[in-house]
């Protein structure tokens, strides 16, 4: 009997089979199911072509039709459905020259990266495991499907993926796989940074992060990675990291706090990350700097968005060996006199009215900032009359 998590997905398999196609669960979902780990996304491999899949299901998103992949939406769940395929030559190290659809699951499994990722499972839970992935799961080994050199030559990203699975699953590298990585690591330079970044982030999010980082040093990957290849001080900081950091912006904030000479912008640009990643990393750095100067005070709490509470707790633990609890932060934030600028009981117009002879300008925003901060830190009561008095005392109008 299959895990209830697969129950929706089983319907997808049944529908495909009812139209005469073969269909199996494959990849990470089968691996994680066998490992009794929580299952993220469910990938399905089928003999049906993308056009045939589109004809069977009412909601299909064609995400990568040229590679044979579509997303089937069923009762608010998404399933990635990929046609059985093999990949032709990889003359440019990045993309197979052609993708060929094939008829058999066995051929499809043979193009997959590691034995633990090359197990297929049918709708009754029966396994098809031609590369003995279950044995490697038992031995906790990452081992390529076929010759490691050839597989890394086809797609050097697989070396980074191997190291990622070491971290994610706390597995070891099988010895031929490790030897091939040591020998061929320079090929990593051929891989698109965006693809490397996905594996980099997943590696640093894994429980086995310190083993994976030690391996990165053993195989000498650092000088093939953006930004690290120009700054060996960053590598030293990474080698001290033992706690998983689930997001790249946390990693960048950690590096900036450890190595003040580095710029968050350079890290974000070097790894081709989004402006959103920059904003999150930058915000984290500014609150961590406030913490370093004055501890957990009101002004810091006021600046800390809820989305960064967990990151802040993790990073203060790593950087300053303090142990904040989520509930402590929530209670402290709830005690703040105001939650945002909107709560300040005085407007820009009210300030202008206080200084009728003064030209409008930057001073309005500057005064509002001062007022906001004074209220947050408890120097000023958030009442219009009190605020006006305070402003006039701090900034007396010039006598004519
Ligand atoms: P995760 O739990 O992170 O989703 P995953 O194993 O599902 O892990 P994906 O990147 O989602 O990893 O890939 C799905 C499957 O596709 C893999 O399990 C593997 O079978 C295959 N695969 C992915 N990338 C490659 C690659 N570069 N070379 C060969 N096979 C790959
Ligand atoms: Mg996956």
How would you describe the overall organization of this protein?
The protein has 400 residues and is α+β, with helices and mostly antiparallel strands. It has 4 domains: 1-139, 2-Layer Sandwich (Beta Polymerase, domain 2); 149-220, Orthogonal Bundle (Hydrophobic Seed Protein), CATH 1.10.110; 226-336, no CATH class; 342-400, Serum Albumin, Chain A, Domain 1, CATH 1.10.246. It is built from 20 helices and 11 strands. It has helices spanning 7-18, 28-34, 50-56, 105-110, 133-139, 148-154, 157-169, 175-184, 193-204, 209-218, 232-239, 248-258, 264-270, 275-294, 298-303, 309-320, 326-334, 348-354, 362-376, 384-394; strands at residues 23-26, 43-46, 60-64, 69-74, 77-83, 85-87, 99-101, 120-121, 127-128, 141-142, 172-173. The strands form 4 sheets. It has a 5-stranded mixed sheet. A hairpin with a 5-residue loop joins strand 8 and strand 9 (127-128). The longest helix has 20 residues, at 275-294. It is elongated. The mean pLDDT is 94. It binds adenosine-5'-triphosphate and magnesium ion (MG). Magnesium ion binds at residues 27-28, 41, 43.
């Amino acid at each position: 009997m299959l895990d209830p998590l697969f129950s929706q997905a089983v319907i997808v398999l049944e529908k495909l089979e009812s139209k005469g196609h073969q269909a199996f669960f494959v990849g990470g979902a089968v691996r994680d199911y066998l490992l009794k780990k929580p299952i993220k996304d469910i990938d399905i491999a089928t003999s049906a072509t993308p056009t045939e899949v589109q004809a069977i299901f009412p909601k299909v998103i064609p995400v990568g039709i040229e590679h044979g992949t579509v997303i089937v939406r069923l009762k608010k769940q998404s399933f990635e459905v990929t046609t059985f395929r093999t990949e032709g030559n990889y003359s440019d190290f990045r993309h197979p020259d052609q993708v060929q659809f094939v008829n058999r699951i066995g051929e499809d499994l043979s193009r997959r990266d590691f034995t633990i990722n090359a197990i297929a499972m049918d709708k009754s839970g029966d396994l098809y495991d031609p590369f003995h992935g279950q044995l490697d799961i038992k031995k906790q080994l990452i081992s390529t499907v076929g010759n490691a050199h050839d597989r890394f030559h086809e797609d050097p990203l697989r070396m980074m993926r191997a190291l990622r699975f070491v971290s994610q699953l706390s597995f070891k590298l099988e010895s031929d796989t490790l030897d091939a990585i040591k020998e061929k690591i320079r090929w990593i330079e051929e891989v698109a940074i965006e693809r490397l970044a996905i594996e980099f982030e997943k590696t640093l999010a894994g429980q086995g992060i310190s083993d994976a980082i030690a391996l990165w040093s053993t195989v000498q990957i650092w000088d093939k990675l953006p930004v690290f290849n120009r700054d060996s001080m960053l590598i030293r900081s990474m080698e001290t990291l033992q706690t998983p950091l689930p997001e790249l912006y946390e990693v960048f904030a950690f590096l900036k706090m450890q190595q003040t000479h580095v710029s968050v912008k350079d890290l974000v640009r070097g790894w081709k990350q989004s402006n959103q990643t920059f904003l999150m990393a930058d915000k984290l750095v500014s609150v961590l700097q406030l913490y370093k100067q004055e501890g957990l005070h009101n002004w810091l709490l006021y600046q800390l968005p809820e989305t960064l509470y967990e990151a802040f707790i993790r990073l203060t633990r790593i950087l300053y060996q303090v142990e904040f609890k989520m509930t402590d932060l929530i209670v402290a934030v709830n005690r703040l006199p105001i939650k945002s600028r909107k709560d300040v009981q005085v407007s820009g117009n009210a300030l202008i009215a206080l200084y009728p002879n003064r030209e409008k300008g930057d001073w309005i925003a500057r005064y509002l900032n001062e007022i906001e901060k004074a209220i947050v830190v408890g120097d000023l009561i958030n009442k219009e009359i009190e605020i006006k008095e305070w402003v006039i005392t701090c900034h007396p109008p010039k006598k004519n």
